[in-house]
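The record is kept unedited without comment:

——
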Amino acid sequence: MSEQKKFIGPLLVEGKTKQIYADQHDAALVYMISKDQITAGDGARRNVISGKSRLSTITTANIFRLLNAAGISTHFVEQIDETTLLVKRCDMLPIEHVQRRIATGSYLKRHPEINEGTRFDPVLVETFLKDDARHDPQIWPADIVEQKIASQQEIDWMVQEGYRVFDVIERAWASADVALVDLKIEFGRAPQGQLMVADVIDNDSWRLWPGGDKSRMLDKQIYRNLKDITNEALQDIADRYALVADLTGKLTIS
């Protein structure tokens, strides 16, 4: 056990794919520990992929290092071990920002008039309320303000900051000839009130098409598309997650 990890305190939150523990040494920090769970369909489909927690931790740490280096405010502090990140304590906003460069997936189901592969420039931003029971419905700025989730000024800031996040990650993946098709990010609010990019950005957070080729996708969509859950299929997913984790350690921003 690392010296830093000795300060892990009580469990604060447990989600589908991670646990959040208090830091007994510093109330402004928490430990985020990844789990080997993979889920889809609002948690209706669940499986365990041995080693996924390590790969998620590596990927998230590498991506947040890129964001921090680009001057983007995030909760990431450091990676403690293979499955543990030390992050700033914040209250997560119950919304997800999805940024789309290329039309595909659920967007096409909601907009059948749009052809798959349509490119959005600037990136198209959609916001969804985190509510599994209601299948994460889309939420609009007026509703976010009315529900006191965030002010209009904060919404505008999150949109602009989201553009910056997408730009950094898109350019980084382009250095490896991988197209960032879309990206989900979340924001947290620090005790002092400021917002920051938080949670995780890992292989469950985006669509990645090497060379822009959908048939070579590397991301969680492979799991969502599975008809039969077999050990071989789960191992194939694990192999792709391992490749992504390895690649994120080599990404550069041109």
About this structure: Residues 104 and 110 are 10 Å apart (CA to CA). The chain is about 30% helix and 30% strand.
